[in-house]
Amino acid sequence: MSVIYVVTEMGEVVLTYELEAGGGMKLLQSSTVVTSGTSGEGSKSAEIALLPDGSTLYATNRAKENTVTAFSVDATGLLDFKQQVEAPAFPRGMTLANGGSVLLVAGQSKTELWSYIVEKDGSLTRSGYSMDAADLPPNPATLALVADSSGSRPLVV
Length: 157
Description:
This protein is mostly beta strands. It has strands at residues 2-8, 13-19, 25-32, 43-50, 56-63, 67-73, 79-86, 91-97, 102-107, 112-118, 124-131, 145-147, 154-156.
C-alpha cells in the first residue's frame, strides 16, 4: 500500500491518503497539529518531513502556535501523536539532515534557524545550536540539502 501525506495550511492537519491502484486517493486519517484542547484558529501549517525509515513524520504549525508536531507512523502508514516542541517564530521551512539525525527548522518572521537532535525513537530535543538574522538571509521560507562539489558533504541552502 502506498501512502501520501498532505499538510493543510489553513486546516492545521496532516491528511493521510491511500494511493489506489487506478490513481485515486482514499482519505484514511486527519491528524491535528495544534495543541490538544485548543482551536488552532489563527495558526497555519507549512511543512512536513518524514524520517528516512518512515517511522516518524514532523509537521510545522506557525502564527498562533509556533511548534513542530511529531507523529509515529505505524505499519499501515497511520499517524499517532508523539510529541510537540517549541519552534522558531513562524516556522516555515523544515528539512532533515545527517541521514535523519538532525531536524532543521527555519523561522520566517524573525529570521531564525533552529536545530533539533532526532532521538532513536523519533522524538526531538533542541540541540542548542541556532542561527539568526546575522547569519541568514531575511525571512527563510524553504530549506534544501545539496552536496558540496566533492559530493560528500551536505550543505543547507
